[in-house]
Amino acid sequence: MDMRPRRFLPSIKLLLAFDAVVRHGSVTAAAEELSLTQSTVSRLILSLEEQLGRELFLRQRRRLIPNAAALSYQRDVARALDMVQRASMAVVANPEGGTLSLAVLPTFATRWLGPRLGDFLKRHPGIALNMSTRIARFDFEVEIFDAAIYFGAADWPGANHLKLFDERATACVSPGFAAAHRLESVDDLRDLPMLHLESRPNAWADWFEGQGGAPCQGGGMLMDQFSMMIQAAISGLGVALLPDYLAQIEIAEGRLVPVLRQAVPIRGAYWLVWPEAKTADAPLMAFRSWLAAESGAEERVIRAT
């Protein structure tokens, strides 16, 4: 194996100082964070520039102002430092197993995935699972995740896809709302406030079509998470259109009641996605097989194009 040129492998101490100065925009603040003197931080920055053979900062009245190259370099350095930190933490916390870092949708994680994870961890005690919530898509080359669960179509750029299940939606209202309004046909809903989710712009149109009625968007509140929509519906603010797996929890607990036909198919599905480079990682392979079984999906992978 070829050795890495040492010139391009600055020490962690140099990189920590550089990262802190760029993040804070101040040598003083960076010194406080690192428990070093200002002069020491300045010397570390100078040593990094000498090693790279390039200036990274403009010196102006004892201030260090990062140039364009420094700003770009800091983004990569910060990501590399995060990777080293996570890898070190994994070795300490789980030396015999593997680690899986997963990005998940907030409500899906708490209401569908969370209650099932105990079984996965019981079956795979050597795997440490780290989860963070993400609503929007991201670049696997920038974010430090092994895989993600998202809703939509099989079009995450550069990722392999495993379909978990299609979306089916159930309209729900609070018991008090149901008692105060006629809810016997789709026409009864047209003048009622409907609660909308930003990531499901076509959901209500699909639901009306699935009920055999003409599409109707209706007026009402727009939200970015199902948890907010559920609370709004419980408070009697309108009709919520929820994933059926989520609606059934609220219905069983008596907080909401269903409206018309339940579990109506709408556009979109839940997917597990991961970069090709992670395909053979043992923790991901174990999670993928377990998740496919839990969701009733065929373990048929759509490869990245």
TrEMBL record:
Taxonomic superkingdom: Bacteria
GO MF term set: DNA-binding transcription factor activity; sequence-specific DNA binding
rRNA processing in keyword set: no
A GO BP annotation: DNA-templated transcription
Keyword vocabulary terms for this entry: DNA-binding, Plasmid, Transcription, Transcription regulation
Domain HTH lysR-type: 10-67
InterPro entries on file: LysR-type_TF_proteobact-type, LysR_HTH_N, LysR_subst-bd, WH-like_DNA-bd_sf, WH_DNA-bd_sf
Family indicated by similarity: Belongs to the LysR transcriptional regulatory family.
Protein name as it appears in the record: Transcriptional regulator
